[in-house]
Design a protein that fits this description.
The structure is a single chain. The protein is an alpha+beta fold and 79 residues long. The chain is 18% helix and 28% strand. The protein has one helix at residues 32-45, and strands spanning 17-21, 26-30, 55-60, 63-64, 71-74. The radius of gyration is 13 Å and the shape is globular. It starts with 16 loop residues before the first strand and ends in a 5-residue tail after the last strand. The model has no long low-confidence stretch (mean pLDDT 91).
């Protein structure tokens, strides 16, 4: 998967990621492959030269397990 600007987000085979909203907290539940996939996505966004505001949308059926709430990973350098 790419973000349209040349950054490549790769997925490990059999990665499973589910995001649940429990009201006052969010739970990201994943198998080992899913956790490594998320870690790589974050490292891509943390890379040198990646502009502020770069992001990746993960949704039910688009990277996340069925029933998940949407998750956006975004780089933000502002405090």
């Amino acid at each position: 998967m790419t973000d349209g600007v040349g950054r490549v987000f790769t997925w490990e085979t059999d990665a499973r990621i589910q995001v649940r909203d429990l009201g006052r907290e969010v739970v990201i539940e994943a198998n080992a492959e899913g956790l490594r996939t998320l870690a790589r996505h974050l490292l891509v966004l943390a890379g040198d030269g990646v502009p502020d505001g770069s992001h990746l949308h993960l949704e039910d059926g688009n990277g996340l397990e069925a029933g998940s709430v949407s998750l956006v990973l975004e780089r933000c350098e502002e405090e």
